[in-house]
Each structure stands twice: as C-alpha cells, then as structure tokens.
Amino acid sequence: MIRALMYILPLALTIYAFIDCLNTPEDEAKHLPKVVWVIIILLFWIVGPIVWFAAGKMRRPPVGGRTPSEWHRNHRHEWVAPDDNPAFLNSLREENKKDEALLKDWEADLRRREEELKRREQGEGKGEDKGQP
C-alpha cells in the first residue's frame, strides 16, 4: 500500500496543481507567466506542484485591490428568464420579421419559376402539335 502511495500521491498532487494553475487568473500568478508554471508543473511532476503551491500563486488579495472572485461576489447580476426579458423578446420579433420577409421572397420566386415552367411546357406542347401531320 505504501508503495502505491509513492506513485499515487505525487500524481494526484500534480493533477491538483495543474488544475489549480489553469483556474488561477493571470494576475494572481507570481514571478512567471501561467504558461511557464504549467510547463514547470508538468515537466517536474514531483517538485513542480510543491513549487507552485509555495511560490507560484498569490495567496492573499493584491494590495489596494480585490481578487476577481470578490468582485464577482459583489457584482452579481440578477438573472432574468428569456421569457421575461424584453430585450430578448424584441430580438426574436426582429428575427421573425426578417425570416417572414425572406420566406415571402422565396415564395414569390417559387411562384415565378412555376409559372415560367408551365409556360415552357405549354409552349413545347403546342410546338409539337404544329409539327405533326
């Protein structure tokens, strides 16, 4: 069991550090860009995660500012269902008008083509009758 833990524990720590690094905002990664931290975590899979947790991530809010998660907590937007959202309903009406206009154009074009086809068929039928004795 202890032998298995020697392999499972560093692997689990590496996966956790990798996901933590990916989820950390760019401005909270210290000393190096996030891409470099990801490479360090993956290449040095035993030491990399420990270095990430020790030196890579800012653990306290920046001086004079708030973390993005604090900003999101204070600036929640009230969600409105699409059926109750007037802007969404207006956009649907506008799309409906565009679709109806397009459908009318297609129907008019189809009627015109059908009439042309009927005229051609009638013209060919009359021409054949005239040519026969």
UniProtKB/TrEMBL annotation:
The UniProt record lists the keyword Coiled coil: yes
Domain (Cardiolipin synthase N-terminal): residue spans on this chain: 12-56
Membrane topology: Multi-pass membrane protein
Membrane spanning residue stretches: 35-55
The keyword Transmembrane belongs to this UniProt entry's keyword annotation: yes
Principal location listed in the UniProt entry: membrane
Keywords on record: Cell membrane, Coiled coil, Membrane, Transmembrane, Transmembrane helix
Coiled-coil residues: 89-123
Compartments reported by the entry: Cell membrane
Pfam families: PLDc_N
InterPro entries linked to this entry: CLS_N (IPR027379)
Protein name: Cardiolipin synthase N-terminal domain-containing protein
